TrEMBL record:
Lineage: Bacteria, Bacillati, Bacillota, Bacilli, Lactobacillales
Similarity section: Belongs to the GppA/Ppx family.
Protein name according to UniProt: Ppx/GppA phosphatase C-terminal domain-containing protein
UniProt cross-references to PANTHER family, sorted A to Z: EXOPOLYPHOSPHATASE, RETROGRADE REGULATION PROTEIN 2
GO molecular function, one term: pyrophosphatase activity
Residues that span the membrane, as ranges: none
Record organism: Lactobacillus ultunensis DSM 16047
Domain Ppx/GppA phosphatase C-terminal: 313-470
Length: 509
């Protein structure tokens, strides 16, 4: 079989890397790293002081891509440690100097890629896993992520900040005390992990996969294997040696970049505390990474597996459950919204991705009720702005948030409204999409206004005079649904230029 070669350029806060990959089996044929970056003291300096190093590396990557005759490539960058303005400036600099366009990945997209690589470990490398629950403990330049899988299906994910800011804080604290710095770091991290520990209530035996632990990989991972099992005794001996080791010795023994070495002891202490928190029976180390997850998204064979394990929707449902959303109502609204979307494809002309965003919005639009019933949709948007759904770009997260915001139909003049002050400040390329999806979701929400799932089925018919009739199949009293529908229909009629009517039909018809 002819190789399907692909180029993956990935820029982390440590370095920029090119991987030459065969997409048929995701085999990495060649890997080229730039020299490591200088670690910045502030978000505005990340990458900026290394622009010459970055652009020189890219020019070398372009030559390598040409040598392999590869025209199919992607260039991703980790955006977790920089702000939006810096990201725009850096992308422009790179485009002007090299001609390449970078696609920034937010924290949620990074977690998504890590979860995908965790699934690959479970499905291919951990064939003898005996336990229902497996945790993926993934270390990174900005966050530590803990993801839970049950029976090889993604369940949930949590994040703990441990980036340059936290490392600098640890350095300041340990420099000011005569006590053992390891004890101080343990206390600092323990206080952060304690909040997460209260959310993890499952104490059943489990496995844990440790990802992005460079020193641990160097100690235990064989070159021919991407994943290897170690014992708790193996880890404890490694840990006890590591915490007594000077940084210079650590760099030499485990072949670490200096920028990675400063994270190594805090990361090891975090692993130690997580292993104590969980009822861990099997431990695995892996070099499968964010890049592995990104490559899985490129490989055509992976899409079917990804579709059967909808990580993004699971994260949305987790959020809805956390905020005590009525899930029977949310599921009904989502079902109706997607049915309306599918029947009106030739009317709204939106993409498949828009359909996904509509489904997510239908799941989480009512989370704001946990905070404030009166302004619940605005509260939902605020919560979503602060807690991004994993796997979505910043643009898609914003669309989901704004769809939720514009479910408001209050007569209060200060309430957000399509066409109002807040809406006019949205990026022009998302305004129409937000308006169309908000209008569809308003109708779907009205069809279960009582939260009692009275309407079992809907059938749509569009008349030649631009009149949409939604036939509600039910024998119940839907007076509340009809009243809500009439209030919520105006946006749909304004956006699509179609009159819409709700008609009840008995189940025997």
């Amino acid at each position: 079989m002819k190789k399907a070669l692909f180029g993956m350029i990935y820029m982390s806060s440590y370095k920029i890397q090119l991987n030459i990959v065969d997409l048929h089996d995701l085999t990495i044929l060649e890997k080229i790293d730039s020299p490591s970056f200088v670690q910045a003291d502030s978000k505005s300096q990340v990458f900026e002081q290394d622009m010459d190093k970055i652009c020189d590396a890219i020019e070398g990557f372009k030559l390598k891509l040409a040598e392999y005759q590869i025209k199919n490539y992607k260039f991703y960058g980790n955006e977790q440690l920089i702000d939006e303005m810096s990201a725009s400036f850096i992308a422009d600099q790179i485009r002007v100097r090299t001609g390449l366009n970078i696609e920034w990945l937010n924290g949620g997209q990074i977690v998504y890629a890590k979860v995908l690589s965790g699934l690959k470990s479970l499905n291919q490398d951990i064939t003898a896993n005996k336990y229902e629950s497996t945790y993926l403990l993934s270390l990174g330049s900005a966050m530590i992520n803990l993801s839970l899988f049950k029976n090889h299906k993604f369940i949930s994910s949590w994040s703990l900040p441990l980036g340059p800011h936290e490392i600098q804080q640890l350095a300041e604290i340990t420099n000011e005390t005569p006590n053992d710095p390891i004890d101080v770091i343990s206390d600092y991290l323990g206080a952060k992990i304690d909040h997460l520990a209260r959310q993890i209530k499952d104490s059943s035996p489990c496995s844990v996969i440790i990802q992005h632990a460079d020193a641990l990989n160097a100690a235990f991972l064989k070159e021919e294997n991407s994943t290897n099992q170690i014992s708790r005794e193996d880890f404890d001996q490694f840990y006890n040696r590591l915490i007594e080791m000077p940084v210079a010795d650590m760099i030499q023994k485990y072949h670490l970049e200096p920028t990675v070495a400063v994270h190594t002891i805090p990361n090891a202490i975090s692993i130690h505390q997580f292993l104590s928190l969980l009822n861990v029976k099997d431990i695995y180390v892996t070099d499968l990474s964010v890049i592995t997850g990104l490559l899985m998204l490129e490989g055509k064979k992976s899409h079917q597996k990804i579709a059967s394990n909808d990580i993004v929707m699971t994260s949305a449902q987790n959020m809805a459950s956390w905020y005590l959303v009525d899930m029977h109502h949310a599921n009904q609204v989502r079902k109706f919204a997607l049915h309306i979307f599918d029947r009106l494809r030739k009317v709204h002309l939106l993409s498949k991705q828009a359909r996904t965003l509509l489904a997510l919005a239908a799941t989480v639009d009512n989370i704001g009720s946990f905070v404030n019933q009166q302004r619940r949709f605005e509260q939902s948007a605020e919560i979503l702005d602060a807690n991004k759904l994993i796997g979505l770009s910043d643009r898609d997260n914003e669309i989901v948030s704004e769809i939720c915001r514009y479910q408001t139909i209050n007569d209060d003049y200060s309430a957000p409204d399509i066409g109002g002050h807040h809406y006019r400040h949205l990026a022009p390329d998302i305004q129409l999409e937000v308006a169309k999806l908000s209008a569809i979701l308003r109708l779907a929400t009205a069809l279960d206004a009582s939260h009692r799932q009275k309407i079992k089925k809907i059938v749509l018919s569009i008349k030649t005079n631009n009149h949409l009739i939604i036939h509600a199949k039910t024998n119940s009293d839907i007076t509340l649904e009809r009243w809500s529908f009439n209030k919520r229909a105006k946006l749909f009629e304004d956006v699509f230029g179609i009159k819409v009517t709700l008609k009840q039909e008995g189940m025997n018809r």
